[in-house]
Amino acid sequence: MSEKENQSVDLFGNIKSRDIGEEMKRSYIDYAMSVIVGRALPDVRDGLKPIHRRLLYGMNEMGLKYNKSFKKSARVVGDVMGKYHPHGDSAIYDSLVRLAQDFSLRDTLVDGQGNFGSVDGDMAAAMRYTEVRLERIADEMLNDIDKNTVKFMDNYDGSMQEPSVLPAKMPNLLVNGSSGIAVGMATNIPTHNLSEVCDAVIEVIKNPGVTTKELMNIIKGPDFPTGAIICGRKGIFDYFETGKGSVKVQARAEIEEGGRGGRSAIVVTEIPYQVNKTNLIEAIAGLVKDKKVTDIADIRDESDRRGMRLVIEVKRDGDARVVLNHLYKHTQLQTSFSVNMLAIVDGRPRILPIKEVMKCYVKHRKEVVTARTRFDLNKAQKREHILQGLLIAIANLDKVIKIIREAQDPTEAKFALIREFALSEPQSQAILDMRLHQLTQLSSASIEKEQKELLALIAELKGILEDPQKVLAIIVDELKGLKKDYGTERKTEISNTELSDMTMEDLIEEEDVVITLSNDGYAKRIPLDTYRTQNRGGKGVIGGKTKEEDFIEHLFVTSTHATILMFTTRGRVFSLRAYEIPEGNRLSKGKAIVNLLQISNEEKITSAVAIEDFDPKNSGETYLTMCTRFGLIKRVELGDFANIRKSGIIAIGLEDGDVLTSVQMTHGKSDLIIATRDGKAIRFDEEQIRAMGRQAKGVRGIRLGKDDIVVGMEHALKDAPGPDVLSVCENGYGKRTEFTEYRKQNRGGSGTITIKTTERNGKVVGIKLVDESKDLMVITENGMAVRIRCEEIRSVGRNAQGVRLVKLAESDKIARIAPVIKDNDEEACGGEEAVPKELI
């Protein structure tokens, strides 16, 4: 548009041409700053947003002190809306309600009478029903406001004055925190403990160079009004240092045993800050409905005026700890509080480390104390000046009375006194303002005493103004008084344990399971109590259904949380968590091991070891001792197997045709016994084998006869009364012999007879070390499983034939054996559902 066209449009001088981009930019910035400074963000000095400041000031002006009677909330809302805050009454009332909620503020500033909402998300009653007054601690925010300590500004229509900030003796921003969303930014400041904050500010005053770590020894971290537990200190350090961080908060929950019907229950007594309890219960119920958590039997809210109590009953066969971990992962029983220490500093928004927040508070309090001292000094000086005039009047009382009587009017009398006694106008006026009977009763002694006290006060106040350290000392004393009068115990516990993301292991119940591997490479896990304990010679129950040509080859008992090291015939080792093996039942075939491990078609799992901890600090000196079919043996330190890639690693170097037969976990204090298929066995000290690298081939353990091979290896403590050796043959026969019957030899010998491999017995399947506390789990090639009490197998000599252990069907043979610890209550429960643990 040309200049001429502009002039033709601007007929009345009210229309001006502007660039629309610049105009929108300026207008938006003005709007944004208005929201940031005037509505959404707290001032770093008093920790209040404008609406909260206006509410406190308005209630103070209305005389609603903590020791006065309550007034209707509607009256407060109307007064504040009409005088200071031209916004909706509902927004003002919501802000008033928050100041009275003990689950929103750590130390409430408004004392509410009536329904002000609840942690369940219930709304407060209408403002016409509720009543309010200031809390006692709110006086600490407003004290000295009438002493010119803070600047006042015009209200929205210029008809009144309102404070731009409160004197705020209490460090409110840290104590009660704040949250708000402005334009392009948001603040989220947690609540803290008043006692700790006071001590921390005092430390900052006394030691300006205090470090963040030193501050963390004083102010431990957030102290939420709803309590709960903060997990870890990293997030606390982050926002202490930078003003931003994330704090993990977890509900306080305990597991109570022996509830209704013997059920265990999770009892929640504290929940994370700003979590709605009703929504939390609905979320838990939703998990049960969607079958994401299956072990919850009932949910009850037993909260009352004594406190919160949320009861989550767990089913009889459920694990309460696992259920609780599920709830931590999927509900707001565990949350993250994202801290953003954003506040208004000198009219501009800034993100502040906690030490800077304290410095800003101290700076504000120095200004308030200085202004208050100056106000008190001015007042004291004026009073002392008046007292000087009164003393002159007392000394010349008759003459003063005469001058007043002879004056035509008060003005003449005032100036006559000024001329006669060289008084100031205020002094002369003070004499005239007093009644005659007061003049006659004036006591020069009392006035002189008051004057003396005022002169001392004036000297003290001047000393404060001249010495900044005295100002700081006053602030320190005030903080100590705050702590003494209002300090409370910490509500939120801070745990040193950093809360990492929930792992799958945390969500899996730890229980003892039987893991089976078939000859064709199918794996499954079954709860151990599925099997019944049977008498010797029983027929057993089905432990795994297989194809006609397949049979159960490996069986071991372990925990679902254990790491299973699976060793293959080719000398490689793979790592798998027990819970990663799919659960099946007695009749299921299981899942192909090739779908779980990157195992080739040329190799099979030949041995497995369950490891609970690879750290030598916890597990001690630990080795994996391996034996091959050709009688070679080696030891490798357990730590060499801590990190195994998915494709597996080499565990032992093998000669052509040799395979890995057995792997045992030893601790350097054992004797080893190696048994062969033809019934030979050798016992020697494991220290005869030095520790080797993973790829070493090992040394000779036993010298084998023609066509003989190793079928098993076991270990027992040296020279100690240990378990017996149980040898089991393929036709269901076996015998139990004391370990001491096998004399110690040097490794590499031919060994001695352990059991005769007659036509009745058949070849040896394996050996196991057992005692009275164990049962024997036997699996046949056709998938039958029998659990036998070892105490029913009597101990005999090495040359004995043995006894029948299992009655086999025609053409069936024993494939695998494993010992398990017998449950202590087995006799009482009739042999059903024993809960043993693995002994490998």
TrEMBL record:
Origin superkingdom: Bacteria
Catalytic activity of the protein: ATP-dependent breakage, passage and rejoining of double-stranded DNA
Predominant place of localization: cytoplasm
GO cellular component: chromosome; cytoplasm; DNA topoisomerase type II (double strand cut, ATP-hydrolyzing) complex
Domain Topo IIA-type catalytic: 41-507
Keywords tagged on the record: ATP-binding, Cytoplasm, DNA-binding, Isomerase, Nucleotide-binding, Topoisomerase
BP terms from Gene Ontology: DNA topological change; DNA-templated DNA replication
Physiological role: A type II topoisomerase that negatively supercoils closed circular double-stranded (ds) DNA in an ATP-dependent manner to modulate DNA topology and maintain chromosomes in an underwound state. Negative supercoiling favors strand separation, and DNA replication, transcription, recombination and repair, all of which involve strand separation. Also able to catalyze the interconversion of other topological isomers of dsDNA rings, including catenanes and knotted rings. Type II topoisomerases break and join 2 DNA strands simultaneously in an ATP-dependent manner.
Classification via HAMAP family: GyrA
Protein family: Belongs to the type II topoisomerase GyrA/ParC subunit family.
Protein name: DNA gyrase subunit A
Organism: Elusimicrobium minutum (strain Pei191)
Gene that this polypeptide is encoded by: gyrA
